[in-house]
UniProtKB/TrEMBL annotation:
InterPro entries according to UniProt: ABC_transporter_permease, MetI-like, MetI-like_sf
The species this protein was found in: Paenibacillus baekrokdamisoli
Protein name as catalogued: ABC transporter permease
Residues spanning the membrane: 21-42, 84-107, 119-139, 169-194, 215-234, 272-297
Keyword match Transport: yes
CDD domains, sorted: TM_PBP2 (cd06261)
Annotated Gene Ontology cellular component terms: plasma membrane
Classification of source organism: Bacteria, Bacillati, Bacillota, Bacilli, Bacillales
Entry similarity comment: Belongs to the binding-protein-dependent transport system permease family.
Keywords of this entry: Cell membrane, Membrane, Transmembrane, Transmembrane helix, Transport
Subcellular location, record wording: Cell membrane
Membrane topology: Multi-pass membrane protein
Amino acid sequence: MFLIGGIIVKQNTKIMSEGRFALILLAPTLLLILGLLLYPLIYSIYLSFVDLNITNPDVGTEFVGFRNFMDNLSDPAFWNSLKITFYFAVVTVIGSLLVGLYAALLLNSKIRARGLFRTLLLIPWAIPLVIVGMIWKLILHPNYGSLNALLMKVGIIHHNIAWLSDAKWSLIMLFLSEIWRSFPFVALLYLAALQTIPQDLFEAASVDGATKRKAFWHITMPYLQATTLVLLILRTIDAFRSFDLIFALTKGGPANNTEIVGLYLYKQGFTFANFGVSAAGSYIVTFLILVLVFVYIKLMKVQNIS
């Protein structure tokens, strides 16, 4: 007889099966996961089909069917936020992949203090998003920001620019800050993939007279294809659910010029108390992300066939 997790089990007896015993041990964790994940999911689906009136509890909730979805699809502000989100996703996903790949190639080469640079690479990715937003807000401040000071010192500009208040520059600054924040994650995955490529292939290509550029396109990139697909999916999802960084920097301004769909849905739910519209909009965005992921996978399969 011995004690496991407060349950007395007799040796050489069949009091309970191993599967049932394992289920008992896992039950608290499973209940916690169901409570934190499944219940909010079910409740959000419920909210997307009802009109929840929190200002007048006596009215209660009213089932409205697909009206919340149609309210989103008929709102020009929703389509504008979706358009900005697509711009944001395309630029930041491509930008982070290119910068991350370049950083990974650099850190995979034989340079001094390579281990130190790999450690420093984690800093932008490890900083909380709100803190990243505060850092960039200080950098881009029109009066005492370091960006204006640097550009004026080298003679590129001759007066301070309100980067986050200017409709032309605000979205560009969001692109740069998001790429700076996200490229270390891309670089780490690419670096791990680069280290799995057999060096014999590069040596054989060099003997055959292949240049470094040809070796990169015909050896390195095919080996990175699977990693690129994973990064495309993860970074696209990350871009569409961006909120913290943009909220900390611009809150969607100026004149909704940087209001991505996450901010639009946040305002619908927590500013205008349209929780049903907000929940329905989130599922429209989820559907769009699934479509993009499907397209990514199809394109990768076509490339593999060709």
